[in-house]
Amino acid sequence: MSTALHTDHYELTMLQAALQSGAAYRRTVFEVFARHLPGGRRYGVVAGTGRVLDEIERFRFGDEELTFLREHQVVDEPTLAYLADYRFSGNIYGYREGDLYFPASPIMVVEGTFAEAVVLETIILSILNHDCAIASAASRMSNAAGARPLIEMGSRRTHESAAVAAARAAYIAGFNSTSNLMAGHLYGIPTAGTAAHAFTLLHDSEQEAFEAQIASLGPETTLLVDTYDVAEAVRTAVELAGPKLGAVRIDSGDLAAAAQEVREQLDALGAHHTRILVTSDLDEYAIAALAAAPVDAYGVGTSLVTGSGVPTAALVYKLVARDRATGRLEAVAKRSVGKPSRGGRKYAYRMMDAAGRATTELILTGAHESPENGVPLLHELVREGVVVGREPLSAARERHAAAVATLPQEALHLGRGYAAVPTEFS
Amino acid sequence: MSTALHTDHYELTMLQAALQSGAAYRRTVFEVFARHLPGGRRYGVVAGTGRVLDEIERFRFGDEELTFLREHQVVDEPTLAYLADYRFSGNIYGYREGDLYFPASPIMVVEGTFAEAVVLETIILSILNHDCAIASAASRMSNAAGARPLIEMGSRRTHESAAVAAARAAYIAGFNSTSNLMAGHLYGIPTAGTAAHAFTLLHDSEQEAFEAQIASLGPETTLLVDTYDVAEAVRTAVELAGPKLGAVRIDSGDLAAAAQEVREQLDALGAHHTRILVTSDLDEYAIAALAAAPVDAYGVGTSLVTGSGVPTAALVYKLVARDRATGRLEAVAKRSVGKPSRGGRKYAYRMMDAAGRATTELILTGAHESPENGVPLLHELVREGVVVGREPLSAARERHAAAVATLPQEALHLGRGYAAVPTEFS
């Protein structure tokens, strides 16, 4: 199905009025940026760019969409005629997926007529606000987890389609796998999972449940050991699976203390290679608090898919330039109290010091020379309506890890604070 | 596309192990409930039930899904064969959409074999956790707004598909319209919107922009007046549209003070019937604080689609009964520290006093007589695999308004607290 109706009503009424006044065909530049990083975060993570490219290609008004718009009198016939032929034919530049952003970073720049650019506002912001929020939270969790793997398992705590996008964003930001099969199917993300408490409760005893699971999934499986009594379950698990038991999962109680006890018990039983997976309302703070505990992997659900307190990224899509009768692009900006915008087409560079650390997010307006030691951040994504910036998800994941490594140390601090890299305008 | 892969990996590995052990065909009862109401909320709102019914009907493993599962070795061949024929053939009972719920309310009860019931966990929880969270927040906003209409306009702040579900949940809980065209198309919710700041900035002057909008959308339109200077914009707006101007929208600044000034100015200009719409990071608290201001309608975005601090409803899906060799259903419950479950098939009644106020959420286990003055809360939704509980969205919306009217007064208090109606087990 087309995504063209994933659009706010007012985009189309603006289009109608602009078609009638003639302003619809003015060239424009729209820019996606965040005025601030919500939640006192030190940096944001760009995610969703690849999904934006997919959706722009599918953004078409077919019979079904046009019939709805006509029957509900959303717009008039000339506007319907325009929409029937709608194809985005402009250019889009953007920060690459997995890269970092800071306040005012122009993470996406859309150039086209007003008509073709304005109608993309809602779909672009929906995708980027969601995916960047999830990736930004996931990155903090990845930092906190260090080398220990993270499994994304929050599907049940968010909208069914948002869950798939969340798994994708988490993978970019360092998660290793997801429970979500659709994310595996659509994006090739490794999927993982073995059993829930229901499986144990289904059988007449925990022993029967473990026997059934091992018989079917092999001794390398992960057994869930907290349905009744953890110590008894661990004993049963090793008895049945032997020292080749892959892992045990603990999903309740004080996870640090429980992991310590279970590790000692496993070692005493000779199951030195059996790993311990912990789950249960983990977030970046809980993960950090478990750094000294004998935990081998973390499963994260609710806090990941809800952005760990920041479920949306505060990104906006603003008109920053348009041409007028002269045919020259002219900067425009609103002056709304507390929410002013900064006019003009932007260019962005990340300034690096000799040691390869990011020092400044430099934002230039209009024609300029590339600054020395500045890494250009805007890349071509769409050229005259054709997607040219597609890349494999693995590239975004690798880029993210490399980008985090350029941050100053305080950027990894979990407490609230200011952006780790200051934004400067020139 | 089928929703069958909107499923956690472990549902299918459990299925595989249970098919091999034979336990897969045991009759089971799963129950959806919340251990608590997050965020100190006084009540929860049931939403998403209709979407669950739609998705269960579409929950099929076709060639595409089976090929993915086979190629990625998620499950073995006998399990794939089972999934190829998968049709839910059991019964589902639930609270009706728009109704209220409290801690432990069994808002959905799924009866079927373990195999057919367990694989529905993720899709059912995704839908209900999201939609109930949004509806619960929306209901508080509706209470705060009183008779003034609420427009849902948060699409750009959440995942593009979650946005459609959010508009639906908000409508159930009392919102009057949405900006989301897909929600209008799929669910018949009234859509609304006129123009953004970009439209004003596009034109060479605010006057030209207003002229263009009025020429196309008529004087009854809503003009956005805070792009530059509010007083000047209001003067221009009335000058161009005359006293028939439909409304002005204020999107920044101190909304109470701005609304007061604009009302006085409109009245002085003779535009007594021109309404004032306010938007800009409104939530239930901000709406309540504007009760005395001359505001005619509220537009709510971010806080609505993110559940106003509670983006997910903490609902879980637990096995509460299953049969064993005897063929008799037996209650089962886990004993996990801090997260115990309560076994047995539940029945729920809302106990009412003589004045029609809800006094208790009464939850009974197993066979029982219907209590006097108790309104039964569980209704048949699916009978032997066939959906029987579908209803128009308007029914849910009306039910919600009626249900809120039965709550004790303190339920409408916006501060954190305990559930407004206590849950009792018998």
TrEMBL record, chains A, B:
SUPFAM superfamilies for this protein: Nicotinate/Quinolinate PRTase C-terminal domain-like, Nicotinate/Quinolinate PRTase N-terminal domain-like
PTM statement from Swiss-Prot or TrEMBL: Transiently phosphorylated on a His residue during the reaction cycle. Phosphorylation strongly increases the affinity for substrates and increases the rate of nicotinate D-ribonucleotide production. Dephosphorylation regenerates the low-affinity form of the enzyme, leading to product release.
Pathway noted in the entry: Cofactor biosynthesis; NAD(+) biosynthesis; nicotinate D-ribonucleotide from nicotinate: step 1/1
Protein keywords: Glycosyltransferase, Ligase, Phosphoprotein, Pyridine nucleotide biosynthesis, Transferase
MF terms in GO: glycosyltransferase activity; nicotinate phosphoribosyltransferase activity
Pfam families: NAPRTase_N
Chaperone found in the keyword field: no
Residue ranges annotated for the Nicotinate phosphoribosyltransferase N-terminal domain, each copy included: 5-129
InterPro entries recorded: Aldolase_TIM, NAPRTase_N, Nic_PRibTrfase-Fam, Nic_PRibTrfase_pncB, Nicotinate_pribotase-like_C
GO cellular component, one term: cytosol
EC nos: 6.3.4.21
UniProt xrefs under PANTHER family: NICOTINATE PHOSPHORIBOSYLTRANSFERASE, NICOTINATE PHOSPHORIBOSYLTRANSFERASE PNCB1
Similarity comment: Belongs to the NAPRTase family.
Protein name per the record: Nicotinate phosphoribosyltransferase
